[in-house]
Amino acid sequence: MADEAIKLQGMVPEHLKVRQSRILLDSLEVMTDIGFHEFEIGAPQRLLVTVELWLEDLDPPDDDDHQSAWNYDYLRTEIVRIAQERRYNLQETLVHAIFQRVAAYRGVKALRVKSVKPDIYDDAKGVGVEIMSFVENPA
């Protein structure tokens, strides 16, 4: 396999060059004490958290070693820790706390964090908050 990669080196056309590299943690389910309504206080709710982070480095680790790559377990653990370390009145507050923590990681070029309460309305998949470090072009 390594020999094949060497043979193909330089063969990828310029228009197919990697221009972005992203890590995605999609819909991590956490239980957290969140909400400002009286019936929500002290009753942990299910929350789905998605974090997308774009990396400054576009290339994979040269050595294919997990020690040189992003630690998904650490990212997951930090999100769970932040969600469970205190009670939150608002999803906005929690999302900003997660955003600030992930934005401090080395090598993050852009970031999007989203939370969704999936169990609020019977006629909707969820209600949530999303923040990002870039302006997204509306379709």
Tags for this entry?
single chain, 139 residues, alpha+beta, GTP Cyclohydrolase I, domain 2, 4-stranded antiparallel β-sheet, 4 strands, 24% helix, elongated
The assigned CATH architecture is 2-Layer Sandwich
| Class of secondary structure makeup | alpha+beta
Look up the CATH topology: GTP Cyclohydrolase I, domain 2
Q: What would you call the shape?
A: elongated
- Kindly report the average pLDDT value: 88
The CATH class name reads Alpha Beta
Proportion in β-strands: 25-35%
End-to-end distance? 40 Å
Number of helices: 3
Strand adjacency order, main sheet: 1-2-3-4
* Topology as a string of helices (H) and strands (E): HEEHHEE
Total number of beta strands: 4
Helical percentage: 10-25%
Main β-sheet, in a few words? 4 strands, antiparallel
Give the uncertain stretches in residue-range form.
none
The CATH superfamily bears the name GTP cyclohydrolase I, C-terminal domain/NADPH-dependent 7-cyano-7-deazaguanine reductase, N-terminal domain
What is the CA-based Rg, rounded? 19 Å
Summed up, the domain count is 1
Structure description:
The chain is an alpha+beta fold. It has one domain (16-132): GTP cyclohydrolase I, C-terminal domain/NADPH-dependent 7-cyano-7-deazaguanine reductase, N-terminal domain (GTP Cyclohydrolase I, domain 2, 2-Layer Sandwich). The chain has 3 helices and 4 strands, in the order αββααββ. It has helices spanning 2-8, 72-84, 91-103; strands at residues 22-32, 45-55, 108-117, 127-132. The chain has a 4-stranded antiparallel sheet with strand order 1-2-3-4, with helices on one face. α2 (72-84) runs antiparallel to α3 (91-103). The longest helix has 13 residues, at 72-84. The model has no long low-confidence stretch (mean pLDDT 88).
